[in-house]
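pasting for ref
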Amino acid sequence: MANQIRTLYVTGAADPAGAERLAAESDRIDVTSSGPDRALELLAAEAIDCVVSDYDLPGFEGLSFLDAVRADHPDLPFVLFTADGSEEVASEAIAAGVSEYVPRSDSPEQFDALATRIETSVDAYRERIDDERGPGEYTTVELIRDLYDVTTDTELSFEEKTDRILALGCERLDLPYGFLSRIDPEAESPTQRIVQARGDHELLQPGESCPLSEAYCRKTIKTDSFLAVSDALAEGWEDDPAYEVFELGSYIGGKVIVEGELYGTLCFASTEPRGVPFTDAEKTLIRLMSKWASYELEHERVTSELERQNERLEAFASVLAHDLRNPLNVAGGRLELAREEFESEHLDTIASAVDRMGSLIDDVLLLAREGESVTDTEWADLDALARESWDFVETPQATLHVETERSVEAEPGRLKQLFENLFRNAVEHAGTGVAITVGDLDDDSGFYVADDGPGIPAEDRDSVFEFGYSTDAEGTGYGLAIVKQVVDAHDWSISIAESDGGGARFEIRTAAE
C-alpha cells in the first residue's frame, strides 16, 4: 500500500456525501470533512497532506481561504474543487498558487478525477521535500506516519513488512545498511546472526554471523532501549573489536524483546560517520520500529504455536472419528442383528449407550475442529436461525417461541450450534414438553434463550460451561461447553439467570460493554 494521504475536505455547508465519495475513490486517501475555521485549527494541530476547498466559503470570499492556508503552509498541496468555476476563476486560482483546479459538476467521474489530482500533487510534493531534506530533518510526526503506513498494510507478510521497514529506515536515516539480528547471549558461544538485511555490506547479509563480542549490538542489548553512534572514531570505537571487524562509522540500533526475553536487534548503519547527531525524532523512530518488530515476532510465535495446536487437535479428531466411530458402527450393526434373534430389555440399554457414545463423539469432534475463533461473519437474523436450529432438535412435544427481530453480526453456522445445544440442553433437563423462548434482553445488549424447566441452581451456574459437566446421566456434558466456545469465539459474554417460568435463562450479550 502506498503512503496514506490525509486530506481536509473544506466546504461551506456540511457535505459528508462528498467526503465519502472522495474517500471511496482511493484507499490511499483519508478524508476529514470540515468548515473553514475548523480546517485552519486542524492544519495548525495535525499532519495534513492536502487541502481540498470550495471557492467561496463562509467568512472567506473568493480565494481568501487559500491565502489563510498559504500564510502558514506555503507549499502544502491545495486543490480547488468548485462549481463556481470559470476560466477567470481558474486563472486567478493558478496565479494565487493552487496546486490543482478541478471543476465540480454532476459527472460521476468527478471524484475519480479529484482523487487522481490529490495523489499526483501530494506525491510530487513529498518527492520534492525528500530531495531537499538531509539527515535529521524529518519531524517525529512524519516519521511515525511513514512507519504507520508500512506496519498497517495487512496484505504484507512479516518478512515483507520487515524489508520495507529496513528500506524506510535506511532512507529516512540516510544510512545504507539496515538489518534485523538474532542474538542468544546465554549460549555457550554467544553469536549475532543476521535474519534480514538491506544494503551491500558483505558481513551484514542474511545468514551471516559473528561472535557477539565483535558486534556493535553487544552494547545495544545492554541499554534500556537503543544505542546511537554518530561518529564511531570520535566516540572512541577505534580499538573496539566491532569497529575492527565491521568498520561502521555510524550506527543506531534498538533491542527486540519477544515474550519478555531478548530476541535480537533492529539496526541501521554506515561505514561513514553521519555528520550530524541522531535527532530525538530519529531515536523515537528506532524505538517504535524495535517495538513493532517485538510485537510482530511475538504474534508470529503465538500464531505458529496455535497452528501446531490446531494440527494436533485435527489429528486427535481424525483418530476419534476413525478409531472410535468405526467400532461403534460395528457395535450398532451387531445390536440390530441381536434384536432380530433375541428379545431382551438389556438390548435397549445397550442401544442407549451406543447412541450416547455417538453423541459424545460428535460433540468432542465439534469442540476439536471448530476452535475458539470465527472467520466469515455476517448480519444474521436470530428469528430465522433459531427456527432452523429447532428443526435439527428432536422435540416432538416441546414448543419454541421466538420474540425477537434482532440481527447480530455472527458466523451463522456457529450461531446455529449455539441454539441447537441450548435447545437440546432444555429438552434433556426440562423434559420433552418444555417451552422455550428466544427474545431480546431488556437493555438491548443482546438476546436470551429461556425455558420453563426446573432451572439451574445458583451454586452450579459457574460450573455448567465446563467440559464434561452434566447433571443428566444420559448427557455428554459437552453441549454447554460448545455454547460457551461459540460465545467466546464472537467476543460475546454469557450468563445464567432464572426465567419468568422458573427455568433456566441464558443471556447472551453481543454488544461491547
